[in-house]
């Protein structure tokens, strides 16, 4: 089921944040131009209606925040930290000076550092958003946690490394700080509704879940040190796996995954550093509830793209809407945002993820996508890729708890 894209809502929401910035006199209309669907995929630019509810602040404190990474997706500025009333973006960083300057401008921030490693030494910074290249996330998050920062990261939590998963878990535990992965599917309107219904036992146990991340990359998107060239599909599994982990809070215990040798050049094993022969990997997982989940990631099949999913449970199913036995459903709409924060891209998830991270710090509670969810989504894909390389051999997946 493709997420509906309302052009009117898109322009209204996109307008809100950029108008605020332009009113502050720091950005021109041209500079607000965001990466388009060629880079982010169609799902990446889709947004959603604002929640009708009224946002109530939980504190008047401002969290001093640093942001690293303004790459091809310009993700450092995309989640709206700079527009949240409880945030002051006090420093930004990108290794490339012109990107660093672009991020500073987009976040209306004067202080820049030449690297994340330098930025996290700044004792006045309380929280850091890691929007750097995917292979660096674990290392950068661990570095920030070691310096006592709360950390939000773009997906995935770890990139192809089980050792990094264990190291990240230990770093989060020993830091006592908040860690959250900004998995955008988790605040798609449909996934949010599924999570509410699941909590209210409207599905019962999930018997079957399915999720897809389809994003055609006939030519790889030009990324930092070419990390997207030949990218194993299941190294990037969180958008699809969220349609189970982000609904239930559970994980996957074992997997059989299959691929087909890709017809796309950079996705052939001789042509990439990962020795990866696949452009599509289809994983069948056993879930922690004992059910099944089919999670697909595909880069080499042009056409309909998106990040989407559905669930079927013992008491009901969700295919765009709930159908089932539960008559007393909870509220299903996403929480209200501060008026200055736009829902943003990826189905209106950007503002929600950022607001959830900020609120979790202010309320001193676990954020929604904590380290356990992040690793249960990310690591399952690493094992799935190993299974695909072994022609679908059934492999065990470790379980993570916060
Ligand atoms: N839907 C989603 O959740 C979604 C969509 C797009 C991208 N992403 C993720 O967002 C992240 C950024 O994506 P991108 O395509 O812009 O990446 P990219 O590879 O184009 O850019 C990464 C940037 O990080 C900078 N960087 C690397 N190391 C650094 C350091 N030590 N200090 C400061 N800056 C450093 C690089 O200079 C570069 O500009 C990626 O991890 C990607 O996986 C997620």
Q: How would you characterize the overall build of this protein?
A:
The strands form 2 sheets. Strands 13-12-11-7-10-9-8-14 form an 8-stranded mixed beta sheet. Strands 3-2-1-4-5-6 form a 6-stranded parallel beta sheet, with helices on both faces. The two termini are 32 Å apart. It is globular and about 50 Å long. The N terminus is likely disordered. Strand 11 and strand 12 form a beta hairpin. It has 2 domains: 178 residues, Rossmann fold, CATH 3.40.50; 164 residues, 2-Layer Sandwich (Dihydrodipicolinate Reductase, domain 2), CATH 3.30.360.10. The protein has 402 residues and is of the alpha/beta class. Bound molecules: nicotinamide-adenine-dinucleotide (NAD). The site of nicotinamide-adenine-dinucleotide (NAD) has 30 residues, from helix 2 and helix 4. Nicotinamide-adenine-dinucleotide (NAD) binds next to helix 2 and helix 4.
- Uncertain segments are 1-33
Bound molecules: nicotinamide-adenine-dinucleotide
- The tally of beta strands, per DSSP, is 14
Main sheet overview: 8 strands, mixed
Helix fraction by DSSP (H/I, runs of at least 4): 25-40%
Rg, please?
20 Å
The top level CATH class name of the largest domain: Alpha Beta
The helix tally amounts to: 10
Numbering strands along the chain, what is their spatial order in the largest sheet?
A: 13-12-11-7-10-9-8-14
Give the tally of structural domains: 2
CATH fold title of the largest domain: Rossmann fold
CATH superfamily of the largest domain: NAD(P)-binding Rossmann-like Domain
SSE pattern, N- to C-terminal: HHEEHEHEHEHEHEHEEEEEEHHE
């Amino acid at each position: 089921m493709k997420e509906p894209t309302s052009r009117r809502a898109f322009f209204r929401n996109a307008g809100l944040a950029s108008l605020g910035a332009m009113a502050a006199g720091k950005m021109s209309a041209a500079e607000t131009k965001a990466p388009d669907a060629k880079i982010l995929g169609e799902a990446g630019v889709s947004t959603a209606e604002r929640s009708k509810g009224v946002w109530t602040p939980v504190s008047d404190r401002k969290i001093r925040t640093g942001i690293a990474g303004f790459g091809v997706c310009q993700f450092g500025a995309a989640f709206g930290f700079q527009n949240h009333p409880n945030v002051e973006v006090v420093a930004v960083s990108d290794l490339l000076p012109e990107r660093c300057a672009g991020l500073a401008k987009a976040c209306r921030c004067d202080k820049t550092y030449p690297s994340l490693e330098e930025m996290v030494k700044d004792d006045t910074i309380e929280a850091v958003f890691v929007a750097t290249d995917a292979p660096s996330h674990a290392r950068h998050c661990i570095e920030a946690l070691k310096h006592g920062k709360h950390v939000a990261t773009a997906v995935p939590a770890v990139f192809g490394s089980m050792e990094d998963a264990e190291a990240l878990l230990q770093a989060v535990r020993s830091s006592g700080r908040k860690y959250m992965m900004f998995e955008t599917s988790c605040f798609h309107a449909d996934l949010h509704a599924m999570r509410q219904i699941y909590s209210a036992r409207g599905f019962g146990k999930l018997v079957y879940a399915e999720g897809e991340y389809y994003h055609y990359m006939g030519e790889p998107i030009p990324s930092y040190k070419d990390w997207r060239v030949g990218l194993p599909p299941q190294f990037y599994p969180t958008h699809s796996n969220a349609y189970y982990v982000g609904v239930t809070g559970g994980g996957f215990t074992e997997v059989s995954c299959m691929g087909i040798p890709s017809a796309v050049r950079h996705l052939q094993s001789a042509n990439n550093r990962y020795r990866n022969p696949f452009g599509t990997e289809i994983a069948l997982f056993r879930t922690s509830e004992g059910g099944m989940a089919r999670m697909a990631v595909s880069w080499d099949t042009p056409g309909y793209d998106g990040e989407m999913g559905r669930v079927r449970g013992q008491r009901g199913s969700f295919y765009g809407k709930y159908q089932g036995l539960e008559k007393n459903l909870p509220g299903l709409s996403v929480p209200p945002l501060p008026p200055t924060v736009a829902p943003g891209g990826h189905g209106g998830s950007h503002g929600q993820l950022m607001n959830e991270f900020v609120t979790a710090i202010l309320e001193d509670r676990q954020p929604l996508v904590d380290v356990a969810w992040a690793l249960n989504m990310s690591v399952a894909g690493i094992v799935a890729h190993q299974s695909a390389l072994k022609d679908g051999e059934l492999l065990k997946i470790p379980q993570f708890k916060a």
